[in-house]
Specification:
Layout: E1 19-22, E2 25-28, E3 63-66, E4 74-76, H1 78-83, E5 87-94, H2 100-105, E6 121-130, H3 131-137, E7 146-151, E8 157-158, E9 161-162, E10 167-171, H4 172-177, E11 180-185, E12 188-189, E13 199-201, E14 214-220, H5 227-230, E15 247-250, E16 256-258, E17 264-271, E18 277-283, E19 291-292, E20 294-296, E21 305-311, E22 317-327, E23 352-356
Parallel strand pairs: 3-14, 16-23
Antiparallel strand pairs: 1-2, 3-4, 5-6, 6-11, 7-10, 7-14, 8-9, 11-12, 11-13, 15-17, 17-21, 18-19, 18-22, 20-21, 22-23
Bound molecules: the ligand Nc1nc2c(c(=O)[nH]1)N[C@H]1C(S)=C(S)[C@@H](COP(=O)(O)O)O[C@H]1N2 and molybdenum atom (MO).
């Protein structure tokens, strides 16, 4: 075992200083984002795979649109997509289970599922065709209400149950609003691990909505469901998850060692599926007092806010750093996230451990 930081399911290199591997998936180490701008480079972007990254032949690939909500079945090739009017969108993709490990580490609650810390999120500049454009060109009927994209990766089998291909419905209103059928990520063709040749990008919604390796899109005059709305990525009460909750993270190693008696410029990012981040505060006394941080530039609607704060620690020992964000909907990160057992949507202020030496 020379390099254990490998996943047979992911094609790109996963250097241990950049990624923590979780089976078929890999999260980005937050300290690896230090020094980067708003965009997460493709090489550092987290990967969430239910099975294995498929390699798709772009010459024979077709995207098929079909269903009761369309006047006809329509197929598009890669070149057809590239020839259509394109749009560019800066948006994060975040797994609904991001932060899951903190339910246990911080709140002592048992959960099952991928034990992400906070690295299952990234921001990219996506280019592609609006889903609305594709639907309209495919003869969208006024009675259509739902759209379901299916990936070309292998069937997802869990505990002997075959759930079929990864797929998840979207209400038509969201599909027509701001969803992109993306073929470019940060100026390059989508890398295989991120959905080549085309994926959905559903701004603000849980990552599972952004289906990779698009094979077909069903449009229906009836509401649709899949195991990814009825069994996975739903609340304990059965509601399919939609927008992600507001969160923050420091661009700092978990358990970083910092010197006392000197001023450190700490960097971090905050994001939300409910609108741009409007305010971020910092606390070094477990939330007894909060101090404003400086936002870098103007946070974009679907990306993240970058910020810095100066801090001069004086007492050696184990310490916790806290950042708390507010978004445009007025939501503020709470000090505790009630657990419904699913491990999704951990939005409480994270306690980032540091050792002061
Ligand atoms: N076809 C397909 N699409 C998928 C997935 C998958 O396993 N198969 N994983 C989903 C989940 S759960 C997330 S969080 C995002 C992750 O996108 P990324 O791997 O590009 O970071 O892709 C989504 N789209
Ligand atoms: Mo996810």
């Amino acid at each position: 075992m020379e390099n254990q930081n490998m996943s047979a399911s992911i094609r790109k290199p996963l250097p241990p200083e950049h990624f923590i591997v979780h089976g078929t998936s890999a999260e980005t180490r937050w300290e690896a984002l230090r020094g980067h701008g708003e965009i997460t480079p493709n090489e550092l972007f987290f990967v969430r795979n239910h099975t294995t990254t498929p390699l798709i032949d772009v010459d024979t690939w077709r995207l098929r649109l079909w269903g009761t909500g369309l006047r006809r079945v329509t197929e598009y090739g890669y070149r057809d997509l590239l020839a259509m009017p394109s749009e560019t969108l800066t948006a994060f993709i975040e797994c609904a289970g991001n932060g899951r490990r903190l339910f246990t580490e911080q709140q002592g609650q048992p959960v099952h599922g991928i034990s992400w810390r906070l690295g299952a999120v990234g921001v990219a500049r996506w280019r592609g065709v609006r889903l609305a454009t594709l639907l309209e060109r495919s003869g969208l009927k006024p009675e259509a209400v739902a759209v379901m994209a299916t990936g070309l990766d292998a069937d997802y089998i869990e505990d002997g149950v075959n759930h079929g291909r990864v797929r998840r419905p979207l209400p038509l209103a969201k599909a027509m609003d701001d969803v992109l059928v993306a073929y470019e990520m940060n100026g390059r063709p989508l890398p295989p691990d991120h959905g080549f040749p085309a994926r959905l990008v559903v701004p603000g919604w849980v990552g599972i909505a952004s289906i990779k390796w698009l094979g077909d899109i069903e449009v229906s005059t009836e509401p649709l469901s899949s195991p990814w709305t009825t069994r996975f990525y739903r609340t304990a009460a059965g509601e399919p998850l939609r927008e992600v909750v507001v969160k923050s993270a420091f661009e700092l190693e978990w358990g970083a060692r910092l010197e006392t008696g000197r001023t450190h410029v700490l960097h971090g990012r905050s994001w939300s599926g409910h609108g741009a981040v409007t305010r971020v505060e910092f606390s070094a006394d477990l939330g007894a007092t909060w101090h404003p941080v400086s936002l870098i530039g103007r946070p974009s609607a679907h990306g993240w806010a970058r910020w810095t704060v100066s801090w001069t620690p004086t007492i050696r020992g184990e310490h916790r750093l806290l950042a708390r964000a507010t978004d445009a909907s007025g939501a503020v990160q709470p000090s505790h996230t009630p657990s419904d057992g699913t491990g999704y949507q951990f939005g409480a202020v994270a306690h980032h451990p540091v050792t002061l030496v």
